[in-house]
Specification:
It is a single chain. The chain is globular and about 65 Å long. By secondary structure, the chain is mainly alpha-helical. It has 14 helices and eight strands.
């Protein structure tokens, strides 16, 4: 996930947000030390040492086989003593799915704002609710600084995801490195869908000779695909309500949400809690992650499953306008790619 920490470090109109972002990231940098140091320390738990060794093989694979950046990111590890690296505030209108965006010098705009302090994130969320936005605060296990942290040791591995199942750990590392490979400063959906496609395709390649781990990974993605299908249906039905008469929107919205919550245990088991707390902000951010992934998968196939050619093809889309990117990706429609990886990572 590209969390707007890097955006905040680039500058922010709100001094308080800039300050907490800078201090929060520097705190992580100070907590991180080289993986080799952890492995040499007899106090490092054996299970953690095993995961760190595995992560380094994945890191090597990312550069050698997936043409992802070769740098010092994910060569260090930090235990943050907390369950999330950062908390994202996301917001959408009461009757719509257009994410509120925050814009910053150098790095552009994003449809979420990252906070390193949960209480501060909640205060910001409350302020947005008072303005009439539907808001969520999402715990995020990892973020990318787009390579800007390489002079500080690179983006580190974190306790918040190091014990993920093998396929998901690989996916996490590949996703974050993808943000360093290609980034469009004005297009959250493009960036996240590209990185989600890289993580899905890359994890499958990593697990190709590990049938049990691959089966577990595919089972998890199949469950998530069922969740995505129900969420996508719900979003489409809600959009029809929002496009209808203003006086019927509140009632129609409540009816759709009630039905989704009733169907979730049968059709999206394991995601009941998501539907219980979901509002327009959740549906909007989910769309940013999933809608374009199949097009990126088709682009990968079109480029002969050659990673360097694929990344280069994606890079050629960056100078285009947001609308031109989507038109180009829509031109790839057709075929039968795998179901997209779905959900924002806070559901893991």
């Amino acid at each position: 996930m590209l969390v707007p920490l890097a955006l905040a470090l680039g500058g922010c109109s709100a001094l308080g947000h800039w300050s907490q972002a800078a201090n929060g990231h520097l705190g992580i940098v100070r907590a991180a030390k080289p993986v080799d140091d952890w492995l040499a320390d007899p106090a490092t738990p054996a299970d953690l040492a095993e995961r760190l060794r595995l992560s380094q093989r994945m890191r090597d694979f990312a550069s050698s086989q997936l043409a992802l950046p070769e740098n010092n990111s994910y060569r260090r590890y930090a235990d943050l003593k907390r369950a999330a690296a950062v908390w994202n505030v996301i917001a959408a209108p009461e009757f719509g799915f257009t994410l509120k965006t925050w814009c910053y010098p150098i790095m552009g705009c994003a449809g979420y704002q990252g906070w390193f302090d949960l209480d501060e994130a909640r205060k910001r969320a409350d302020a947005l609710k008072a303005e009439g936005w539907e808001v969520q605060v999402q715990p995020i296990p990892a973020y990318s600084t787009l390579g800007w942290s390489r002079l500080l040791g690179g983006d580190p591995l974190l306790n918040t995801f190091i014990r993920y199942a093998e396929g998901e750990l690989a996916a996490m590392i590949f996703h974050e490195l993808a943000h360093q490979r290609v980034y469009a400063s004005d297009d959250t959906g493009f960036n996240e869908a590209y990185a989600s496609a890289v993580e899905l395709l890359g994890a499958r390649q990593w697990l190709a000779d590990k049938p049990e781990a691959l089966a577990a990974f595919e089972a998890g993605r199949a469950r998530r695909a069922r969740f995505l299908a129900l969420a996508r249906e719900g979003r489409e039905r809600l959009q029809k309500v929002y496009d209808g008469p203003a006086e019927l929107r509140a009632q129609g919205k409540a009816a759709v949400m009630a039905e989704l919550r009733e169907r979730a245990p049968r059709e999206a088991p394991g995601y009941e809690a998501w539907f219980q707390r979901a509002n327009n902000a959740n549906f909007a951010i989910l769309s940013a992650y999933s809608d374009l992934v199949p097009a990126f998968e088709r682009l990968f196939e079109r480029e002969g499953r050659d990673w360097r050619r694929f990344h280069a093809a994606v890079e050629r889309l960056v100078p285009l306008s947001r609308e031109e990117r989507r038109a180009t990706l829509r031109s790839l429609e057709g075929g039968t790619p795998h179901e997209a990886d779905p959900a924002p990572r806070q559901t893991r």
